[in-house]
Amino acid sequence: MEAKQKNLNKQNKKGFKVPNAYIIVIGIMVFVSILTYIIPAGQYSEITTASGTTVLDPNSFTYVEQKGITLWQFFTSFYEGLQKNQAIIFFLFLLGGYFKIIIDTKAVDGFISLLIDKLGNKVLIVIPILMLVMSLLGDAGVLINPVVAFIPIGILLANRLKLDPICAVAVTFVAAYQGFSTTQICGPTLQTAQAIAELPILSGFGYRFVIWAIIFVVTAVYTMRYAKKVSKDPRNSIIYGEYELMEVKEEHITKFEAKHGIIMLIMLVGFGIYSYGAVKYSWGMDYMAAIFFIVGVSGGIVGGLNGDQIVKSFVEGCKEMCFSAMLMGCAAAISILLTEGSILHTITHSFALFLQNFPSYISAPLMYVANVLVNFFVSSGSGQAVVVMPIMTPLSDLVGVSRQLAVCAYQFGDGLSNCIFPTNGTMMACIALAGVKYDKWLKWILPLFVIWSVIIMVALTIGVMVGIS
Question: What is the spatial distance between Cα 105 and Cα 35, in angstroms, rounded to a whole number?
Fold first, then answer.
């Protein structure tokens, strides 16, 4: 009631209102379009490596005729962005529907109730446990874009623990992206970058594992401290008054039953099968969609839902994903405008020239910073590998930084900055689904990102000094 009253008071106050997530993305698109008239147009030639990967030739940069984005190109970029991300968009619709079936069986509610009963006053220990699971799934490359579908589960958990939606995003999205950012095995990013840099695949495993462990512990502790503050007093929430906890009465608490255990086991087996296939056989979203079709429908049947109820839950889950999934498509329009305006390669080339002016122990951290900045414009991990690694590889040879550390600088810079930049459609989709405004999200995540960056830059400097290769 107090939160609701505060929310009403806020609505009565006049002042700046943070724009809708779509407005933010459109604003960035306008800004990028203007840049295509300011930044000189440039282009690298493409070459094909021995492994068959198409990359940029680092010695081929030339300035080309300026061709700023036209008004027509601006408008058509929305459709092209949706078309570019169509596989992810349809995948999120499906996964959202399948998970909604599972949620409507009350299996997740029941499992959370069981954890709360068993842990008692140590209930917040659930947070690092869930974060570890999500981090490992992100590390394996299983949960990157699909993490959006887990936000409703995070919200269920946050509600039962009397936490805010920021915690829901932290234990799902942030944990998964922390694992993805410091991965030792992920194919689309790490393995692609290592192939371009002509390094043995999965080399440097131990160095990356240590960094993953440090970053995970820091992230879990940061989240736990915030969760404890909010649990102790909701007024400590960054978004206090902007969300409303559902009052959970004793008679409304779902008791854990045998069927709930079977449903959770089905989910676990489904994840296990897909995780193994993704790592061993490079399974993609088509396999995950098929597996979770089986998981969702079989879970619904075990949970006692009839055919009509399963279909209704599925459609409702798809509807819940609509805002977020479409937002991911619109965010892809930004990179399309950069490419059509021929300034993406110019930006990358400028960073490369800048880095040549520093000694190796400074160049390595600056490579991380450069990749963070590039990621604002190229939010795709594999796409950024193709753009920057052909440049970073010879550059690392020139400045005395090992190619392994150059790959790490790309990997960490690309991954971790996905948690702060509005050009990352997945992040924007997650916070939009949780009902968290971007400025409030930035207030929570930015200090953590600074801590991550300090750790990474120190680790890269140490890597130069000890000769990581």
Answer: 50
A 10 A CB-CB count for 350 gives 14
Helix or strand run (H / E) with residue 179: helix 175-181
Q: Is 54 helix (H, G, I), strand (E, B) or coil?
A: strand
Question: For residue 183, which of 138, 153, 133, 223 has the smallest C-alpha distance?
Answer: 138
Supply the pLDDT for residue 203. 87
- Residues 313, 97 contacting (CB under 8 angstroms): yes
Q: How wide is the angle at C-alpha 325 spanned by C-alphas 8 and 105, nearest 5°?
A: 80
Helix/strand/coil for 42 = strand
Reported as half-sphere exposure (CB side, CA atoms, 13 A), residue 356 has a value of 10
Residues in the chain: 469
Six-digit token string for 197: 């840099």
Q: How many CB atoms lie within 10 A of CB 87?
A: 13
Whole-number Å distance between alpha carbons of 320 and 300: 18
DSSP conformational letter for 174: I
What's the CA gap between 76 and 336, in Å, rounded? 10
Nearest to 217 by CA among 122, 135, 123: 135
Q: Can you tell me which residue has the tokens 């990749």?
A: 371
Contact residues for 365 (Cβ-Cβ < 8 A; gap 6+): 409, 456, 457, 460, 461
SS3 state of residue 261: helix
Tokens of 201: 């695949």
Give CA–CA dist 405/396, Å, rounded.
8
Q: Are 468 and 209 in contact (CB under 8 A)?
A: no
Quick one: which of 129, 175, 178 has its CA closest to 150? Answer: 175
Judged by DSSP in three states, 85 sits in coil
Helix boundaries (H) for 341-437:
344-355, 360-377, 381-399, 403-416, 425-434
- Residue 353 structure tokens: 């020239």
Give the CA angle between residues 14, 19, 23 to the nearest 5°: 150
> By the 8 A CB rule, do 200 and 190 touch?
no
Dig out the tokens for 150 from the structure: 């887990």
Neighbours of 339 (CB within 10 A): 15
Mean pLDDT, rounded, of the chain: 85
Give the pLDDT confidence of 1-55 residue by residue, as tens digits.
344 444 444 444 445 566 777 888 888 899 999 999 999 999 988 887 666 667 7
What's the pTM value of the predicted model, to 2 decimals? 0.78
Q: How far apart are CA 193 and CA 137, in angstroms?
A: 20
Selection from 198, 171, 202 nearest residue 186 by Cα: 202
